[in-house]
Amino acid sequence: MSDRAASLPRVAPGEYVQQTLAGLDPTAGGGVDPALPLYATTFVVVDLETTGGAPDGGGITEIGAVKVRGGEELSVLATLVNPGVPIPPFITVLTGITQAMLIPAPPIEQVLPSFLEFIADAVLVAHNAPYDVGFLKAACAKHGYRWPNPRVLDTAALARRVLTRDEVPNRKLGTLAAYFRTATQPTHRALDDAKATVDVLHGLIGRLGGHRVDTVGEAIEFARAVTPTQRRKRHLAEGLPKVPGVYIFRAADDRPLYVGTSGDIATRVRSYFTAAEKRARISEMLAAAERVEAVECAHPLEAEVRELRLIAAHAPPYNRRSKFPERMVWLKLTDGPYPRLSVVRSLAPGDTAYLGPFRSKQAAELAAAGFHDAVPLRQCTHRLSLRTVTPACALAELGRCPAPCEHRITPEEYDHRAAAPFRTATASDPQVVVDALLARIETLSAGQRYEEAAVVRSRLAAVLRASVRMQRLAGLTRIAELTAARRASGGGWELALVRHGRLAGAGVSPPGVHPRPTITAIRATAETVEPGHGPVPRASAEETERILSWLERPETRLVEMSSEWSSPVSGAGRFRDLLAKAENGGSHQLSTERS
């Protein structure tokens, strides 16, 4: 055993669990660049003989492996393995391997170090690879060796993609060996079968050129179960940049079909043409797509923001989220001596008491129901007069409304008891509303009216969720200009200039260079953003929330701000834990939250 083999990392032995073949996962490593041309790739073609059965960490009786590159054989590893258990008679008949042959052979735990060293920095190849790789991974797990997770190419799967039924009736190794006239015929012995698989591999690689498959990464993806549409349209992913940005799938008439974002445009778009992409709507989109447009961005934050703006502007038919930001609604307090809550599409400059934005009318109405449970706001839609009396509704008779319609309450008292708590809850402290709802939940729970308590709990969550969100947004959007920086992965700094919650400029300063000149250039060319009314005056709520998430990361540094960034000391943010319980727990968990 070499020094390198002896130093292979050991891990605690554990139970092997059969999973998806790791080598067919595009995230598999093994130190092999997926862009490496096939002719320059080192392959280790392996075959195992076993006692049969499922992989349990043992059962391997023989390993044969051949290392090749550019059609040339580099080295060979072959050994019998003592499985530590008797060999079934039918295995002896099939392979010719007897119990006597295996008694002097080393056990698998002694063979693994040399084998793992042999396959290092190579692509593993096997015929029906999940079977062989499953046994090898199970042996590593049982004996404490870390599986290196190499890239794996399955010649059986590749043959199913390359060869038609007219050429071969099946994809068995013996059938393929006869078709490609391999120098070594498979004999159910590991080394012979591995050598036959080498010739089959070379024959299949010779057929890949016609499918425009030239690299090892493309070959592995090609072997996977992709649809004819994915295979036909995979050329759309060619020539795209490997940088952060936005990609747009466009139809023949140039209509945007789908907009997405990624830190690596080329890699992300290629994934749409692999077996990992199984969404029906994406398959339909690919069938209609004729080209992919890339919009390069300075860093991922700019890419996310551009994606949101493009989706909002074009409403691509195959995007499900982030469309139609103009459909957001607000819950506001109306004007007049006896104001009520109203769901509106937009805020007027004179509106001062409001909550939102909500993603749907139903969400706004749920929050409104929470306020109606907590404070005596009237729920009727009549326009009330200080002079004329209007007949009261059933809510007044039930004690759920102070009946301002019949002038049973003065405008001043109504404002103090009903309207002022809404203003305070939305602008600063929702304590009064929270206490009232918690008390109602406690009363209902004590009376074993759990379903009603759950309804009130959902209303409490709606109120808190909207209040926390709006106060968080308002804290940023009231700042005229903010500059922030974050270390870029390749060195330098990712820079963002934000004005009133809108991304006005972005850039990256070069490594080893002070970022100040880049910040000055970004400011000089940044978008002009005027102040406006409301918590999201000049951007969608989703854009400002993306910016907030970026700014709140521990690695982000605030460089400059035109004014302070603050939130109310007694604001809704202090109820985040209560909100989490209301969203995820039962009503009994809230009874101890009253202060």
UniProtKB/TrEMBL annotation:
PROSITE patterns noted in UniProt: GIY_YIG
Cited CDD domains: DEDDh, GIY-YIG_UvrC_Cho
Entry keyword annotation includes Nuclease: yes
InterPro entries assigned: DnaQ (IPR006054), GIY-YIG_endonuc (IPR000305), GIY-YIG_endonuc_sf (IPR035901), GIY-YIG_UvrC_Cho (IPR047296), Ribonucl_H (IPR013520), RNaseH-like_sf (IPR012337), RNaseH_sf (IPR036397), UvrABC_protein_C (IPR050066)
Domain GIY-YIG: 242-320
Gene3D superfamilies registered for this protein in UniProt: GIY-YIG endonuclease, Ribonuclease H-like superfamily/Ribonuclease H
GO MF annotations in UniProt: DNA binding; DNA-directed DNA polymerase activity; exonuclease activity
Pfam families xref list: GIY-YIG (PF01541), RNase_T (PF00929)
The keyword Hydrolase appears for this protein: yes
UniProt record, GO biological process: DNA replication; nucleotide-excision repair
GO terms under cellular component: excinuclease repair complex
Xref: PANTHER family: UVRABC SYSTEM PROTEIN C, UVRC/OXIDOREDUCTASE
Protein known as: DNA polymerase-3 subunit epsilon
